[in-house]
Design a protein that fits this description.
seven-stranded antiparallel sheet; alpha+beta; Jelly Rolls; 260 residues; 15 strands
Amino acid sequence: MRDILDLERFPLDQPGSEAWKDLVKSCRRDLAQEGMFNLEGLLHRDVARRAVADMRPRFDTEAFLHQRRHNIYFKKIADLPDDHPALQEFDTSNRTLCADQIAGSALLRLYEWPEFAQFLAATMDKPALHVMDDPMASVNVMSYQEGQALNWHFDRSEFTTTLLLQAPAQGGQFEYRTNLRSDTDPNYEGVARLLNSEDDQSKTITLSPGTLNVFKGKNTAHRVTPVVGDEARVIAVFSYYEQPGVSFTSEERMGFYGRA
């Protein structure tokens, strides 16, 4: 894996070593304090550039254009009237390639490398993480071109694992508000303040290509701002589960990818 990863700085290939334990400890601390950790430069930049170049023709001809208008919850909330400010709607748009469209890529090598899942599980304090059985959903690569964005939302899963492959010249920034809600308090008024740009605790970061980002997004509202310019924002999303054998249903595949 040294041909694609900087294992000198990030010894993912040495589970149980002191250097590996120190890295896990640092990642756990960042997750607790910031709701995320970043390993900048984990993937070599030339590998990221080649991956984007290899996928560019497929994005032009095969990718699924995913467009939807949604509120921050991606659904109606029974406790709120339709005109509540926490339910204001936004547009999300991107092009998606699935795992079966990037066969043989460095991204699939990384996803299927057991030490990667072992490291992620340790940072999340999980006994183990497992790859998906789904031939489409296990690894997705999203391209956000000019004007496209991933708008405000909460994640369904506890953790999200991404790897940035290409950053745009402008826009495409990651904005988030840590612990805006909890499992017991939906904090609808706080959500409304955030969506009205009245929350002074939201933060914005700009990631560089090759950065691994692990993020606790279930109760942290977040978005990616619209891309500006000709350079797309391209990011890979890795899906692991605590139980083996997970696959999407045909209905879920149709909704996310336009095919089953």
